[in-house]
Design brief:
The complex is a heterodimer of chains A (615) and B (341). Chain A has three domains: 6-225, Pyruvate-ferredoxin Oxidoreductase, domain 3 (3-Layer(aba) Sandwich), CATH 3.40.920; 232-501, Thiamin diphosphate (ThDP)-binding fold, Pyr/PP domains (Rossmann fold, 3-Layer(aba) Sandwich), CATH 3.40.50; 512-614, Rossmann fold (3-Layer(aba) Sandwich), CATH 3.40.50. Chain A is 36% helix and 22% strand. In chain A, helix 19 (574-582) links the parallel strand 21 and strand 22 (589-592). Chain A is globular. The mean pLDDT of chain A is 95. Chain B is of the alpha/beta class. Chain B has helices at 29-43, 78-88, 100-106, 108-117, 162-168, 182-194, 216-219, 224-227, 280-287, 308-321, 328-332, and strands at 50-54, 69-72, 93-99, 121-127, 173-178, 199-204, 228-231, 238-239, 245-250, 253-258, 295-302, 338-340. In chain B, strand 5 (173-178), helix 6 and strand 6 form a beta-alpha-beta unit. Chain B starts with 28 loop residues before the first helix and ends with a strand. Classes of the chains: A alpha/beta (615), B alpha/beta (341). Chains A and B meet through helix 1, strand 9, helix 9, helix 11 and helix 12 of A and strand 1, strand 2, helix 2, helix 4 and helix 10 of B.
C-alpha cells in the first residue's frame, strides 16, 4: 500500500553517481539527465573518470563519477556539492564525501560494505559505525542482492546481473524525484534495442528499485524539481565535444566547403574524431593520422585542395602541431585547430580540466606567427565558437585555434536547437577559373585576406609553401624589406578580425566596483557567482572573453569602468599576463586554481566578497 | 591547328616556368625535372589537375620549378600534406618529391604510413645518400663507414634500403631508376602515375657537391650495363653489355649466370613478376648489391589492391544511402530532443 509521503519542492538538486569504472555510473547519469530534460528541467552535467580504463576495482583510483545538476531555476554549472550521492562501494563514498552538502542523502549498496571493500578503499574504521556519516540521510540498500534476485528468472549470469545494479539505483531515484518510470523504460528500450533479453531484465530491475524505495520507512520525503522557466522550444542535451563537431559540420555546410578532419586520438578530444567519423553522409571526411603532426599537415593539404581543413587535439598534441600551424600562417590557408585543454605539463592529468594552453596557443610557434584564438564557454557554446572559428578561418584565410577544455568537452547542458538558416553567412574568398588577375598573395583591401584558388581550377596554377613569399606575387623571396612587410601584414590581418567579431558583453553594470574577468570554460561558475552577488546588491560585473586574439574592440572601454579588476582562470595567470601586455594601463588582481578541477561557485564568491570589502 | 581535340594536347613545355632553377650545375635533379616534364603529357592528366608536393631539402624545391599547382611543405611532412590533398579531391594527380633525409629520417613515420594506406600519390625519392641543403651531413641511406661532416671517423649506422622499407610498409609500387637514364626515368614515371595506389620511385641521384659520384659504380658509362639490371614485368631478367647475363633461382637465392656457360640456356633465366603476391622475389631484387649482383632497376613491385580514397568514397556513398539525415538541420533534430512548452 502506498504511504503518503511528504513532497518537497526544490529549485535545484545536484546528484552524484559514483562507483567502479565498470559500474555503469555514466549510463545511469545520462539516463537521469535525459529524464530530467524530458520533463523540462534545466541541467548541466559533468562526468569525472580516471584515466585508466578499468582501474583496480573497489579502490579510490578506480572511482568513476557522474554529477548532474538539475533545476527549476537556471543552471550554469554541474554544482559545487551534491545533495544526493549514490555510492556503489566504500571507495566511492570515501572519494566523494567531502563534495557532499551537509544533510545530503547518501544511497549506498550495503552489499559492498564489508571488510574486504573497506580494506581496498583504505578505510581503517567502518564508516557506517563511526560518526563519519553523522548528519547525513543514509539509505543502506541491498542493491546487489535485490538486483540478482530480480533477474533470477531471466537467463542471465551473475556478472551480467551485476551490471544492471545501476538500474536499481535509477529506480530508487525515479521514485525519490517523482519521475515517470516510462521515461526510464524508453531510454532502456532504445539502449538495448537489439538485445531484448537484456532490455527486459534491465526494465525489471528499474521497477524493482522503484518499488523497493516506495516501501521504505526510512525515506520520509520525496523531491520535486519543477520544469525550468527558461525559454520554450525544442532542446537537446549536448556535450561540448559533440557541439564542437556539429558546429564544424554546420560551418562546412554553410560555406560549401566540405569538412576534412585530420586527427590523432588523444584524451579528452577523441570524441570529436569519433563523432565526425560517423558523419560521412554529410560529406565529412575523417583521416585518422599516424601522429599529431600528420593530423594538422593533412588538414593543411585538404585546405589547399579546397576543403575546410580541421584538426583536433589536446595540449601535448598542440605542441606537436606548432610547426604545422606556422605553415598555415605563412601559406595563409584556412585551418581550424581544436585544442581540448587538459592538465599539463607533458602527459599531466589527461582526464582533468585546465586552462593552461592559452599562451601556447597565442605564442607557441617559431617566428612572428600570429593566428586567431577563440575559446568556448559552455558545452553548447562549443557549437557557436567552432562555427565562428571556421568562419574566421575561411573568410580571413588564417589558422584559428579554438580552445575548449575537458570540463566543456565531457560536460553537457540543455541546448535550444538552432536552425542553421539563422547562422551567419560564410563567404569563402574563392577565385573564378582563368582569372588573369589572380596572384596568390594579392589581398582583399579590407580584411587583408588572400584569395583561395584551388588545384583543379583552370588557369590558376600557382605554388605556395613555407618559404617567405613576395608580397602580392607569392614568389619565393628573401628580400629583407619584403619579409618585414609580410610579417606586418600577417599581424595586421589578424588584428583586423576585430572589425568582424561582436563587441565584448558585460553581465551587470558597465561601471562599478569590481569587474570579474574570465575566459572560456569557467563561464558557468563565474556567471553563477557574480549573478548571485548581484542579487545581494553587490557592485560586481562579469566579462567572459571568447575572442582572445584579437580581443574585441571595446575591451579597453570595458576594463576602464571599474575600481578593481580580477582575472579568474584555471592556470597561474596566462590571460592576466596577456591582458597586461595588451592593456598595461590597468591593474589586474588574479584568482588562480590549478587542481585539474573547475572553479566552485562558493570559493569564487568568498574571494569576490573579500575584495569588495576592501574597496 | 590541324585538328581539334576535347582534351588539349599537353607538351613538356607546358610545365616550364620562368623562374630560375636553383640547383647546382651538374645536380642530378635537373635530369629528373626534365624527365618528369616529359612523362606528364603521357599520363593523360589535364595540367590543372596536377599537384606537386614536397618536404624540405634540395629536391623539395622541385614544386617551384614546374608549372603546376605546388605546395612546398615541412621537413618530412609531405606525405601527410599530399594525403590531405588527394583524399580531399581524388581527381587530382598528386606527386610527392622528397629526399633521403626528408623521407627516411625526419619523415620516416609519414613515409611508411602513406605506403601502408595506399593513397594514390606518386612519390619520387631523390636518394643522393647525403644531406645536401644543410651542406654535407650523413643521411639514413649513407653507406656504413662514410666520412662526412658529422662522421669524421666514418658513420657507424646501418643505412636504410628504401625499397625494403617500402615493402615492409606494404607499399604496392616500388621502382628504382638512375638520374643518368632519362628514358628509363620517363617510362617508370609514367607507370608510377598510372598505378592506382602509392607509387614509390627511388632515384639514384648524384649530389655533385657533397657526395659526387656516390652512384658511379652503378651509373658509370663503362660499368652500367653490367652493374644494372632493368627489370620489366613478364620479361626475363637479363643484363650485361652482351645481354648474356641473367638471374636464376638457386635454393632460396638468386644467382647471376651467363647464358651458354655451365649449360645455362636462355629459357632458364627467371621472368620478372612484379605482380607476384608472394613478395620474396621483390625483397631479393631490392636487396641485391654490388659486387655479387647488379643493382635492380625498373619496377620491382606493382600490386593491384584497394586504394584508400576509393574505399573511403565508397563508404561515403554507402552511408548516404543508409540515412535520412541530409543536412545539419536534420542532424540537430535527430535522436533525443525535448520540447519544452
Amino acid at each position: 500500500m502506498k504511504k503518503d509521503k511528504k513532497v518537497i519542492e526544490l529549485d535545484e538538486v545536484v546528484v552524484k553517481f559514483a562507483g567502479d569504472s565498470g559500474d555503469g555510473m555514466q549510463l545511469t547519469g545520462s539516463q537521469f539527465s535525459d529524464t530530467s530534460a524530458f520533463i523540462g528541467n534545466d541541467l548541466s552535467t559533468f562526468p569525472d573518470f580516471p584515466s585508466e580504463i578499468r582501474a583496480p576495482q573497489g579502490t579510490i583510483a578506480g572511482v568513476s563519477g557522474f554529477q548532474v545538476h538539475i533545476g527549476h531555476k537556471e543552471i550554469q554549472t554541474p554544482g559545487d556539492q551534491a545533495d544526493v550521492l549514490v555510492a556503489m562501494n566504500p571507495a566511492a563514498l570515501k572519494a566523494n564525501l567531502r563534495w557532499l552538502k551537509k544533510g545530503a542523502t547518501i544511497i549506498l549498496d550495503i552489499d559492498n560494505f564489508d571488510n574486504k571493500h573497506y580494506k581496498k578503499a583504505g578505510y581503517i574504521e567502518d564508516p557506517l559505525h563511526d560518526d563519519s556519516l553523522e548528519g547525513y540521510n543514509v539509505l543502506k540498500a541491498p542493491i546487489t542482492n535485490l538486483t540478482r534476485s530480480t533477474v533470477k528468472d531471466f537467463e542471465i549470469d551473475t556478472r551480467t546481473a551485476d551490471k544492471m545494479r545501476n538500474q536499481f539505483v535509477a529506480g530508487i531515484l525515479y521514485w525519490l524525484f517523482n519521475r515517470d518510470l516510462k521515461i526510464g523504460e524508453t531510454f532502456l528500450k532504445e539502449k538495448f534495442r537489439k538485445k531484448p533479453e537484456l532490455k527486459n531484465a534491465n526494465i525489471a530491475v528499474l521497477h524493482s528499485g522503484y518499488n523497493y524505495a516506495e516501501t521504505l520507512e526510512a525515506m520520509t520525503a520525496t523531491f520535486l524539481v519543477n520544469p525550468a522557466e527558461k525559454q520554450k522550444g525544442l532542446f537537446r542535451n549536448i556535450t561540448g565535444n559533440t557541439a564542437t563537431s556539429w558546429g564544424l559540420l554546420a560551418a562546412a555546410e554553410k560555406s560549401g566547403r566540405k569538412l576534412f578532419l585530420g586527427s590523432y586520438p588523444i584524451t579528452p578530444a577523441s570524441e570529436i574524431l569519433q563523432e565526425l567519423a560517423k558523419m560521412k553522409h554529410l560529406d565529412a571526411i575523417t583521416f585518422q593520422a599516424e601522429d599529431e603532426i600528420a593530423g594538422i599537415c593533412s588538414a593543411i593539404g585538404a585546405s589547399f585542395a579546397g576543403r575546410l581543413g580541421v584538426t583536433s587535439t589536446s595540449g601535448p598534441g598542440l605542441a606537436l602541431k606548432g610547426e604545422g600551424i606556422g605553415l598555415a600562417v605563412i601559406t595563409e590557408l584556412p585551418v581550424v585547430i581544436i585544442d581540448v585543454q587538459r592538465g599539463g605539463p607533458s602527459t599531466g592529468l589527461p582526464t582533468k580540466t585546465e586552462q593552461t594552453d592559452l599562451l601556447q596557443a597565442l605564442y607557441g610557434r617559431n617566428g612572428e606567427s600570429p593566428c586567431a584564438v577563440l575559446a568556448a564557454s559552455t558545452p553548447a557554446s562549443c557549437f557557436d565558437f567552432a562555427y565562428m572559428a571556421a568562419k574566421i578561418a575561411i573568410e580571413h584565410m588564417t589558422p584559428v585555434i579554438l580552445l575548449t577544455d575537458g570540463y566543456l568537452a565531457n560536460g553537457s547542458e540543455l541546448w535550444p536547437i538552432p536552425n542553421t538558416e539563422d547562422l551567419p553567412e560564410i563567404v569563402p574568398p574563392l577565385v573564378k577559373d582563368n582569372d588573369i588577375y589572380y596572384l596568390p598573395y594579392d589581398r582583399d583591401p579590407e580584411k587583408l585576406a588572400r584569395r583561395w584558388a584551388v588545384p583543379g581550377q583552370e588557369g590558376l596554377r600557382h605554388r605556395i609553401g613555407g618559404l617567405e613569399k613576395a608580397d602580392v606575387t607569392g614568389e619565393v623571396s628573401h628580400d629583407p624589406m619584403n619579409h618585414e612587410i609580410m610579417v606586418l601584414t600577417r599581424a595586421e590581418k589578424i588584428e583586423r578580425i576585430a572589425n568582424k567579431i561582436p563587441e565584448q558583453e558585460v553581465i551587470g553594470s558597465k561601471r562599478g566596483e569590481l569587474l570579474v574577468i574570465g575566459w572560456g570554460g569557467t563561464y558557468g561558475a563565474l556567471y553563477t557567482a557574480v549573478t548571485e552577488l548581484q542579487k545581494e546588491g553587490k557592485s560586481i560585473s562579469l566579462a567572459q572573453f571568447n575572442y582572445i586574439n584579437p580581443l574585441p574592440r571595446n575591451t579597453k572601454e570595458i576594463l576602464k569602468g571599474y575600481k578593481k579588476r580580477i582575472v579568474c582562470e584555471l592556470n597561474l595567470g596566462q590571460f592576466s599576463t596577456y591582458l597586461r601586455s595588451k592593456h598595461p594601463q590597468f591593474d589586474y588582481l588574479q584568482y588562480n586554481k590549478v587542481q585539474g578541477l573547475p572553479f566552485m561557485v562558493s570559493e569564487l564568491k568568498m574571494k569576490f566578497n573579500e575584495i569588495l570589502e576592501e574597496i | 591547328m590541324a585538328f581539334e581535340s576535347a582534351v588539349p594536347i599537353i607538351t613538356p613545355q607546358d610545365f616550364n616556368l620562368d623562374t630560375q632553377v636553383k640547383w647546382c650545375p651538374g645536380c642530378g635533379g635537373h635530369a629528373v625535372l626534365s624527365s618528369i616534364k616529359k612523362a606528364l603529357p603521357e599520363t593523360g592528366v589535364p595540367k590543372e589537375k596536377i599537384v606537386f608536393v614536397s618536404g624540405i631539402g634540395c629536391s623539395s624545391r622541385f614544386p617551384y620549378y614546374i608549372n603546376a599547382y605546388g605546395f612546398h611543405g615541412l621537413h618530412g611532412r609531405a606525405p601527410a600534406i599530399a594525403s590531405g590533398i588527394k583524399v580531399a579531391n581524388p581527381e587530382l594527380s598528386v606527386w610527392l618529391i622528397t629526399g633521403d633525409g626528408d623521407s627516411m629520417a625526419i619523415g620516416g613515420n609519414h613515409f611508411i604510413h602513406i605506403l601502408r594506406r595506399n593513397i594514390d600519390v606518386n612519390i619520387i625519392l631523390f636518394n643522393n645518400k647525403i644531406y645536401g641543403l644543410t651542406k654535407g651531413q650523413y643521411s639514413p641511406t649513407t653507406p656504413m663507414g662514410s666520412i662526412t661532416k658529422t662522421s669524421p671517423e666514418g658513420t657507424i649506422e646501418s643505412p636504410f634500403l628504401p625499397g625494403e622499407l617500402a615493402m615492409g610498409a606494404q607499399g604496392t609500387f616500388y621502382a628504382r631508376v638512375v638520374d643518368t637514364d632519362p628514358k628509363m626515368m620517363r617510362e617508370v614515371f609514367v607507370q608510377a602515375a598510372r598505378h592506382k595506389g602509392t607509387s614509390l620511385v627511388e632515384v639514384f641521384q648524384n649530389c655533385v657537391i657533397f657526395n659526387n659520384k656516390v652512384h658511379e659504380d652503378i651509373t658509370g658509362k663503362d660499368v652500367r650495363e653490367d652493374n644494372q639490371i632493368y627489370v620489366q614485368h613478364g620479361k626475363p631478367m637479363i643484363f650485361g653489355k652482351d645481354r648474356n647475363k641473367g638471374l636464376i633461382q638457386s635454393g632460396s637465392k638468386f644467382v647471376v649466370v651467363k647464358v651458354g656457360e655451365n649449360g645455362v640456356k636462355k629459357d632458364d633465366i627467371l621472368v620478372h613478376d612484379a605482380h607476384n603476391t608472394d613478395d620474396t622475389s621483390h625483397y631479393m631484387l631490392s636487396r641485391m648489391t654490388l659486387p655479387d649482383y647488379p643493382m635492380a632497376m625498373g619496377i620491382i613491385r606493382e600490386w593491384k589492391t584497394g586504394v584508400y580514397e576509393n574505399l573511403l568514397y565508397k563508404q561515403i556513398k554507402e552511408s548516404k544511402k543508409k540515412t535520412k539525415i541530409r543536412t545539419v538541420n536534420d542532424l540537430l533534430h535527430s535522436g533525443n530532443t525535448f520540447r519544452i512548452e
